[in-house]
Write a structure and sequence with these properties.
- The structure is a single chain.
- The protein is an alpha+beta fold.
- The protein has a domain of 137 residues.
- The protein is built from 10 helices and 8 strands.
- The strands form 2 sheets. The protein has a 6-stranded antiparallel sheet with strand order 1-2-7-4-5-8. Strands 3-6 form a two-stranded antiparallel sheet.
- A hairpin with a 2-residue loop joins strand 4 and strand 5.
- The longest helix has 19 residues.
- The protein starts with 15 loop residues before the first strand and ends in a 6-residue tail after the last helix.
- 36% of the residues are buried.
- It holds the Pfam family DUF6597.
Length: 262
């Protein structure tokens, strides 16, 4: 399981937060499920800043369900009051059954007509001990029924996303295409159809997440070393990536993001 704080810029700000694996029979559809629960004093709030994974999320809250697209920049949410959410980080194999154009959802969240799902998840979340596991099961059961049988092309799309997001030796779309035994053009079409981002953008997001994780865990780390280890041409390229996506530099992040940082 990936570090549950990966992609979270300031873990110290998190409310109660859990990442749970999907049931075995939904593993081709869901990377993991995530559940924040919060109870914040009146007049206060908790801001959550994320470098999201390049994937779509199906999210259920007390008000209904939404489909959240991949993002091209840092995303943020201000939590207030009391509440919860149950989300599924979708693998590419699940996406085609939910939207014909994931690229149209880039940096957007849309209400999703998931009949029966919000009620089933809300019931699970109010059911006492084991409520998170039951909520995950309800979401994954609904998704598995909606998607149906997973096809060979869908499995190939899953392999694409896994390669781009987990293999540090894959630093270019050309390398990824060679590993998957497809042309670069085919790889680009797969990413567009199942994620909405280009392969190059997915690789950049992986490297940025890894860089943020390393800087946060060791604020004294040398940024030039981080850049070299992750395949950036030099430290300035790492700085440019941080600035373009997050709006601040790697140095500024290092100054504020240590364990317990703001």
């Amino acid at each position: 399981m990936v570090d549950p704080t990966r992609g979270v810029l300031y873990p110290a700000r998190l409310p109660q937060f859990h990442r749970l694996p999907p049931p075995v029979d939904a593993a081709e559809l869901v990377e993991w499920c995530w559940i924040p629960e919060w109870d914040i004093e009146p007049g206060r709030s908790s801001r959550q800043d994320l470098v999201s994974f390049p994937a779509l999320n199906l999210v259920v809250e007390e008000g209904g369900a939404v489909l959240s697209g991949a993002t091209t920049r840092v995303s943020a949410r201000e939590l207030t009051g009391r509440g919860w959410a149950v989300g599924a980080l979708l693998r590419p194999a699940a996406v085609a059954a939910l939207t014909e154009a994931p690229s149209a959802l880039l940096d957007r969240v849309e209400a999703y007509p998931a009949a029966g799902l919000p009620e089933a998840v809300a019931h699970a979340m109010s059911s006492g001990d084991g409520h998170r596991e039951r909520a995950v099961a309800a979401l994954c059961d609904w998704l598995r029924e909606r998607v149906g049988e997973v096809t060979a092309p869908a499995r190939h799309a899953n392999a694409m996303a896994e390669l781009l997001m987990s293999d540090p030796d894959v630093r270019t779309p050309e390398q990824a295409a060679a590993r998957l035994a497809v042309s670069v053009r085919t790889l680009q079409r797969m990413a567009h159809r199942h994620v909405g981002l280009s392969p190059a953008a997915m690789i950049r997001r992986r490297r940025l997440q890894e860089a943020a994780e390393r800087i946060r865990s060791d604020p004294g780390t040398d940024l030039a070393t981080v850049a070299a280890d992750l395949g950036y041409a030099d430290q300035s390229h790492l700085a440019n990536d941080f600035r373009a996506v997050l709006g601040f530099t790697a140095s500024a992040y290092r100054a504020h993001a240590g364990p317990g940082g703001a």
